[in-house]
Amino acid sequence: MKVEERNLDTSPHVSDEVRQTTCYMCACRCGINVHLRTGEDGQPKVRYIEGNRDHPINKGVLCAKGSAGIMQHYSPARLMKPMLRTGERGKGEFKEIEWDEALSIASEWLGEVRKRDPRKLAFFTGRDQSQSFTGWWAQAFGTPNFAAHGGFCSVNMAAGGIYTFGGAFWEFGQPDWDKTELFMIFGVAEDHDSNPIKLGLSKLKSRGVKVIGVNPVRTGYNAIADEWVGITPGTDGLFVLSLVHELLKAGSIDLDYLIRYTNAPWLVIDDPKADDHGLFARDRKGDPLVIDRKSGKAVSSNKKGVKPHLKGEVKLGKGRTARPVFELLAQKYLSEEYAPETITAQTGVPAGQIQRIARELAEAAFEREVIVEQPWVDMKGEKHDRMIGRPVTFHAMRGISAHSNGFQTCRSIHLLQILLGSIDCPGGYRFKPPYPRPVTGQPNPHGGSRTNEPLAGPHLGFLRGPESLLLEDDELTPQRIDKAFSWDAPMSSHGLMHMVISNAHAKDPYGIDVMFMYMANMSWNSSMNSKGVMQMLEDKDENGEYIIPKIIYSDAYNSEMVAYADLVLPDTTYLERHDCISLLDRPISEPNMLADSIRWPVVDSATQAEGRDVRGFQSVLLDLGSRIGLPGMSNEDGSPKFKDYADYMVNHIRKPGVGPLAGWRGKNGDKAGRGESNPDQIKRYIENGGFFEAKVPDEALYFKHANMAWQNWAIDMGLQDAPYENTFQLYLEPLRKFQLSAEGKAEPQPPETHRDRIKKCFDPLPSWYAPFEGSLISDDEYPHHALTQRPAAMYHSWGSQNAWLRQIHGTNPMYVPGQICDSEGLQDGDWAIVKSHHGEITVPIKRMEAVNPNTMWTWNAIGKRSGAWNLDPDAPEAKKGFLLNHLIHELLPPKGDGMRWSNSDPITGQAAWFDLRVNIKKAPNQDGPSTPQFPEQKKSRKSPINVEYGKEWTK
Amino acid sequence: MTSLPQSTNKKLGLVIDLDTCVGCHACVVNCKEWNTSGYGAPLSDLDAYGAEPSGSWLNRIHTFEITPDDAPASIVHFPKSCLHCDDAPCVTVCPTGASYKRSEDGIVLVEEDRCIGCGLCAWSCPYGAREMDPVENVMKKCTLCVDRIYNENLPEVDRVPACVRTCPAEARHFGDLGDPDSDVSKLVAERGGYDLMPEQGTSPVNKYLPPRPKTHGTADIVFTPKEPPLNAKGFLGWLDAALERL
């Protein structure tokens, strides 16, 4: 058949208008172009979402999640009105109420707590991006109990990096994708830093740069890596320190870099009986001492022109001596303990592979130097003609941090980077503004609380030693409900959100009255021991009252956590709200470019569904703050100081001239960084595509930790008020201070129960110790490791309500290594029982070979509670999907000492999800469903059966 | 039966780099969101929030595990959509003329008004690249975003298929594979791009670039480091000498 005329329009109408905002389908914060077109009801409707080509983060590309934004925005699981619980907790039975009533209930509950005992409010936020705002609110409230989700996310990564060199990975810095010659990626899940890493890998591939993936699972980024190191979970630190061993042995380290930028030459006191043994030897001014290579004497490290030695002993008088950090470091890592042959069995990495990778690192760093012809001046005033770089880069994330040895492993990776001289140099790791921000530029944590008064300073910070712990007068009892900054987790810079419900339920250290949470699915995938947490939220005391008496929760969707709230404050979707992605918070800068951005309502929530009456959480928080009289939130006449969050974004002043947004400040919008508030600021952001960027000056592009031009520019831009001293801390003195306390040589002192583990784990030089859970269970009983990771096309629990994404990831089999399948008689599609010391789950399995032979894994947060997210109770997510969380306890296996030891890193309190050890057996029942199952959660509204999105615009 | 053009002026198609594709599904979903409101009927989703959700998609990713004897197992992600074959059996099998190949650019399309939903084309496609829409009952397939690539309502830079514009790993390339001097043809020549299942005789226009060879864990060192091994005085002896050189 021949058809001459075809009915085809190749230039159809696309959209009526394009509005540019910031994505929120995950945490990457990409720029998006939202195409709007009039829908059947005459209201603007989202036609198409694409990446914004000008945006610093994603440069036009957009991932699967971002592209599925339409289905999230129109999800049938959206909440429509405030709700008050009518049934028992957990059932999902509510009545809808008006905002006036909801706000007066909330302000009554909150106001009462503030008057009586502000500690009785636990205010914790999940995956939100407004922590500088929510923290400010909590500080004004006066409760010490505030944090965001960092404690169960990646605080080890952030704290390990900040304490070591004033940066970390992801928001803090990234590889110099254009110039690096070798890239190693450790423990990074498929979804992490989604678009930037993929763009970066693509650049490396096009230049033929080698990528080495270190991960027990060979999927995602690791699937395209040129070499795979299928490491045993929790042993990355050993592997990295073995690379250090090899590099030291070969002399492949950058001594000049170490002398200039690190504390390698600083002298460490060697006087075993003294109470300062292991601290830095300092002069009267407090400056650390070094050995002058000429005179052999101890002099100030700040003495002009001094050429310090990296080895040797000096006498300090009174029979005391000291040695440089570097000598201690070399002795430690040159020991056979770290030889490749020694660690092969534990890590599962062949010795020859470790040796070869060490040489490849050295070859790239030292034989393929990258030079940028750009003069610069360092902070000592020395001029450099050019910028010389060591082009090896690393990136790491949760696979490193979510272990009880994660802090030390993060530090080990940074040690490796620094020995190679590859921090903030051409071809190396690069800081992103406002980083570097070392501990010297960070606040201490603040606690204490008095009725009706704000906290003295920000909750979270970086403490310098045991003297800054947040303890009661007995120097033992934690001030905070999550026990952050206590002996349990002294350097817990992001708090321990994963312990809040468990501790509040145990009234350890005390009970609370109101738990107020935002965007945190604590009764499901955002808790360890989800089943236990659900029970804790349901438990009542002898009077029939809930042990956690009042729960206020804000979410945009009918998540599992909604069912446990007493009062639900419905949030908007990301296309209906104001937000600022602020430099005061989690910034989106690129190494060359300081940047921040906004979200703004590209559609009005009231037009997006019948009867929709929702409010952005941050605006609601400001309203509540004004109602209960929090300082800074009301005018003198009692009226609210800020109309809404947009008003706050423009008019809040954090310090003179500095507010949440850096762009278009000043009355005329002609100032950047510092300047008065500009009433047109949001308009200017919108005109610029939703973001602001300012180019870092050429002479400040590298060596920012020591670069005068960078420091000056950072001060001009309001990122800091003075230059920051940033000597990379290979030897971390605060850790040694904790050891001294544990040794009984300094005050305050930890309880007896904690002394041994502080002595062992708080090594001031990066070290490795076996993950805790594995040390407390029997290897014979639980011989395998079990992990989760998020897929590239799904984010947390949010994705399952998404009609498109759930077709890609509607179930999550347990991927089991072939070797284990063979020994247990398991085949693809079988149901198996996986058991840990804490619980058991029944799951469908899938055989896999491209995985560490002793590690099974699954996708995170695909499993759903039946009925949650307004899905069919028989949805595959509920009947075949499952959570690994049920196997992971928030506490370590009991040691018989009666203590409730958190399953966390002993230094930072980071939740140790990945320490999990399991066994697996074929299930007697091969028909499913997955277990545990829970009673059905009531839907908040009916979901449609079929979706034909866009039908109104197609012929 | 429907005729194929004798030849086409251009051979527009995709080049997909299997060395770079991380299997993230960005192309899959962006394709769906562009096309559900675009060419022809929407790409429907059946039982969208129910127990057995399914829908029509124009592009899907298949994931394969490779288990060679002499190397560790690895994963390859394989995005697959219509390959816009020169000898497209899905066209010649069509009883109504709905399925056709454009002579100007070689794009294979379904004119939905003529489609009776008989499914013969899907049966004839050796790649399984066509899907019957479960609600609309018309045959859906990749249009190479024919409503984007010439669309004067879009900025010129955006006149590429949605999957290409969105791919975060830049693993997808679009161009004229009939022109040996085009970027895509050069890429294919350089990287050994290949036809999928050439034995089927369909002469696909789309090409795949194979994964580059990987280093095995036990591979040998291919260079010697510059620094000599430690001398008799050990590490600290080396350090003295090295510091002297600074």
Task: Please write out the topology.
The complex is a heterodimer of chains A (955) and B (246).
Chain A: E1 17-22, E2 31-38, E3 44-51, H1 64-67, H2 69-73, E4 83-85, E5 94-96, H3 99-116, E6 121-125, H4 131-141, E7 146-147, H5 155-165, E8 173-175, E9 182-186, H6 194-207, E10 210-214, H7 221-224, E11 227-229, H8 236-249, H9 255-261, E12 267-270, E13 289-291, E14 298-300, E15 314-317, E16 320-324, H10 325-334, H11 340-347, H12 351-367, E17 370-372, E18 376-377, E19 383-384, E20 387-389, E21 392-396, H13 398-401, H14 406-419, E22 429-431, H15 500-506, E23 514-518, H16 530-538, E24 550-555, E25 567-570, E26 579-581, E27 593-599, H17 617-627, H18 645-651, H19 681-687, E28 691-695, H20 708-716, H21 733-742, H22 752-761, H23 772-776, E29 784-789, H24 805-808, E30 814-817, H25 818-824, E31 831-835, E32 840-848, E33 855-859, H26 876-879, E34 917-922
Chain B: E1 12-17, H1 26-36, E2 45-46, E3 54-55, E4 59-66, E5 74-81, H2 89-92, E6 99-101, E7 108-110, H3 120-124, E8 131-132, E9 139-140, H4 162-166, E10 172-176, H5 183-191, E11 207-209, H6 234-245
